[in-house]
Write a structure and sequence with these properties.
Elements (H helix, E strand, L loop, with lengths): L17 E2 L2 E9 L5 E7 L4 E5 H5 L8 H14 L5 H14 L23 H8 L7 E4 L11 E4 L1 H6 L6 E4 L2 E4 H8 L3 H9 L4 H4 L9 H8 L1
Antiparallel strand pairs: 1-2, 2-3, 3-4, 5-6, 7-8
């Protein structure tokens, strides 16, 4: 039984086609994002169900054995396979380019990738240097890729403030997260967030007085 595709979607037949080490056997349903899924057989004999978009864009070209082989080759060259910096690099590659990774939906599926230069561990190490104690890799622009001009070493506190889910508030031309303004003013995060959502003007958002007037009352008082 075939799954009906949403209006405007056209099924591309992949049966029997080869993508790297993978040969498509038959269609095996549809993902939650309406992407056709295909049962594939790797040259090593492993069977995997893979999204059609990953096959066509060549994001997946083996069951994972190719990546493991490449990692082994690189490990024999630089001898750093058990270091912290190597683990950071390996995790970065995994969540961006392995659809089987638990974190792939938050990275690779969002279109975030690792730049071509950093696909090689030696280049990543040269650009970023050794991992700094107490810090991990952080993308300055959360919608950007892993590349030299968008990455830095950051503490957990800095990373939490740089999450894409954080609300930013601009007051007097200074943009900070709700948490940062809370630390500066001593006001609860919930209070600041509520004021920002309600559209309070800049001059009122950070007022500490419990008697702060609502925006329409403030404007009427000033007139």
């Amino acid at each position: 039984m075939t799954t009906k595709l949403p209006k405007g979607h056209r099924l591309i037949i992949l049966d029997g086609k080869r993508f790297g080490r993978l040969i498509v056997i038959y269609r095996s349903g549809t993902s939650n994002s309406h992407d056709p899924l295909w049962l594939c057989k790797c040259d090593c004999g492993t069977m995997r169900i893979i999204a059609g978009s990953s096959l066509r864009r060549e994001l997946t070209t083996s069951c994972g054995c190719l990546q493991k082989e490449n990692i082994v080759k690189r490990m024999t060259k630089h001898g750093m396979s058990h270091t912290k910096i190597y683990g950071i690099w390996e995790g970065m590659i995994e969540r961006c380019h392995n659809p089987l990774s638990n974190n792939y939906r938050n990275y690779g599926m969002r279109g975030i990738s690792v730049c071509e230069r950093w696909r090689f561990f030696e280049n990543f190490l040269e650009d970023m240097g050794e991992a700094i104690l107490g810090m991990s890799i952080d993308r300055i622009n959360n919608d950007g890729n892993y590349e030299p001009n968008n990455c830095r070493w950051a503490t957990k506190k800095e990373q939490s403030r740089n999450k894409r889910t954080n609300r930013l508030i601009t007051v007097n031309g200074k943009m900070k997260t709700v948490k940062e303004w809370s630390e500066i003013t001593g006001l609860p995060e919930t209070t600041l967030g509520w004021r920002a959502r309600k559209g309070w003007p800049e001059y009122a958002i950070l007022k500490r007085s419990p008697w702060t007037r609502l925006p329409d009352q403030e404007e009427q008082h000033e007139r």
